[in-house]
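Propose amino acids for all 363 sites.
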């Protein structure tokens, strides 16, 4: 096991900076997810940790050992990729033991390691089969097992679930989380799927444009996003945004958008962010669809016309046109309005998020 420290990790490809000054310390035994859209630099950062890419600037250490210039084989890491990369002519047992056999580990030790990993992953009955005889989920478990048997200091996983169907993804991510907890191996996991990141991680590092936007426990980044990008990326469906003005009137704080105004508690905005009396400040107000309830008048009350109803089982999402702004709310499916109905949407002030229009930072 190891503590992984990324110090100003930077990777450039000519004029393009793929990863820009990444500073992260991953605790021994922690499960950290690098999350972000395609092209944000998360897989490049993982490749740098693995030693598959040479850094342009910065350093990487495992515990107090500088591994920046070491080859992948010298770092004691194990990688699981999106592609299972199994040898089709080998049995499951031989695929899982291949790395250990290359290292000339004692055959009795290899068999013991493979048997233990096979039992942990529910592969005992499959050890003599070949990859073509396995389902996608079973192949992915074999790929994970191949990494487990090596007893690595660090697990590196690059979108290992993206080739699986929805139900298999849910089952396999549960197995990965359980396995990581049992083994206590420091794990860096890359995904663009925010739900996957929320479920698996001790902490999430959200990236955009090669830069770290926010790092923290899943519910912290969900409840207190550092900026508008994080707010819009974390959470499904995506957060609604209203662009308006923050102003103080008669000692009270208000947010105004079009003909709608809501009073905000003073403590909802930092002192430095408060506008002067009569001096509006451009701001964006974010509301998660799950907090915008149809048929309820609350701190912020909006009215509009329904243009789409999306039943998903336990709830229905309602898309509403409010003065030309498309907002998504939620309601009981048994009380869902029809397309064309006019409805009221309400949200409590405790569940709104405010961001500066100029910088996109949380206010």
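Proposal:
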């Amino acid at each position: 096991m190891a503590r992984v420290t990324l110090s100003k990790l930077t990777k450039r490809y000519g004029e393009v900076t793929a990863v820009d000054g990444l500073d992260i310390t991953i605790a021994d035994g922690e499960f950290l997810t690098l999350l972000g859209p395609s092209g944000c630099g998360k897989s490049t950062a993982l490749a740098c940790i693995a030693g598959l890419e040479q850094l342009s600037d910065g350093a990487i250490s495992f515990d107090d050992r500088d591994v920046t210039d070491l080859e992948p084989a010298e770092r004691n890491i194990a990688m699981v990729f999106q592609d299972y990369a199994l040898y089709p002519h080998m049995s499951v047992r031989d695929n899982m033991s291949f790395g250990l056999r290359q290292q000339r580990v004692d055959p009795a030790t290899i068999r013991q390691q493979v048997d233990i990993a096979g039992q942990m992953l529910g592969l005992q009955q499959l050890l003599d089969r070949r990859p073509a005889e396995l389902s996608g989920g079973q192949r992915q478990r074999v790929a994970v097992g191949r990494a487990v048997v090596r007893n690595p200091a660090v697990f590196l996983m690059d979108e290992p679930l993206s080739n699986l169907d929805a139900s298999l993804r849910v089952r396999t991510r549960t197995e990965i989380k359980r396995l990581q907890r049992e083994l206590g191996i420091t794990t860096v996991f890359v995904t663009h799927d925010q739900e996957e990141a929320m479920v698996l991680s001790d902490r999430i590092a959200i990236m955009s444009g090669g830069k770290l936007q926010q790092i923290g426990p899943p519910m912290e980044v969900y409840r207190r996003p550092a900026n508008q990008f994080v707010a819009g990326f974390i959470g499904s469906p995506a957060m609604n945004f209203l662009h308006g003005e923050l102003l103080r009137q008669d000692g009270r704080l208000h947010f105004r958008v079009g003909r709608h105004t809501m009073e905000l508690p003073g403590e909802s905005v930092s002192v430095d962010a408060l506008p002067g009396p009569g001096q509006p400040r451009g701001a964006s107000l974010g509301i998660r669809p799950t907090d915008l309830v149809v048929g309820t008048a609350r701190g912020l009350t909006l009215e509009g016309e329904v243009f789409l109803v999306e039943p998903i089982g336990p709830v229905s999402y309602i898309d509403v046109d409010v003065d030309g702004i498309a907002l998504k709310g939620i309601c009981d499916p048994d009380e869902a309005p029809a397309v064309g109905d006019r409805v009221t949407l309400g949200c409590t002030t405790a569940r709104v998020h405010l961001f500066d229009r100029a910088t996109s930072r949380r206010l």
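The chain has eight helices and 20 strands. The CA atoms of residues 207 and 213 lie 5 Å apart.
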